[in-house]
Automatic annotation (TrEMBL):
Residues 11-165 form the NADPH-dependent FMN reductase-like domain. It comes from Citreimonas salinaria. It comes from the Bacteria. This is Multimeric flavodoxin WrbA. GO terms for molecular function: oxidoreductase activity. InterPro entries: Flavoprotein-like_sf, FMN_Rdtase-like_dom. Pfam families: FMN_red (PF03358). Signal peptide: none annotated.
Amino acid sequence: MPDAAEPLTAFALNCSLRQSDSDSPSSTDKMISDLLAAMKPHGVTGGTERVVDHNVKPGVLSDMGEGDEWPALRARVLAADIFILGTPIWLGHPSSVARRVLERMDAFLGETDDRGRMPAAGKVALVAVVGNEDGAHASHASCFQGLNDVGFTIPANSGVYWVGEAMHGTDYVDLDGVPDAVQSALATAASNAAHLARLLKRQNYPGLPQG
């Protein structure tokens, strides 16, 4: 049972190619919403931002100068206990927007504290993938490796996805309901992420010994 006295927070970045004012609904948004809903019984609350609604400049620094809106998103990522990277599949791979997010997080490698811990140390990461073509596992592999490289902790069974039939036009957002297999995956990922995030919040990684 969740510890109600120890609430957790989650923050998601939707890496859709469409801005939020688009007439087309976002399947990535729906997957993220379903995952956040699955976390609610575990004492986790959170929100999401669509990356393309912000001027996230290309680069590998935490601040790329005037007009760069990544620093504000970065602060929200690091303020949360659980980070969710949501991406559609394009040409069998994560979206270019998801790649840009990971590239900007590359800065974490050079931002360690006095114990060698990156800013994401003690933070849990999940990856939510949607598409109507193959590539979910490849997208998970790419994103999880990048998130692990920059210090996030990956829970067991934490990759959630839905892919439709190849060469057809049905999207996740078009479904009448959440398929049982996806619902089960969401529930497992939510439970494992909340459990691990609580453990790390109580006792973060010690880092390198001092002296």
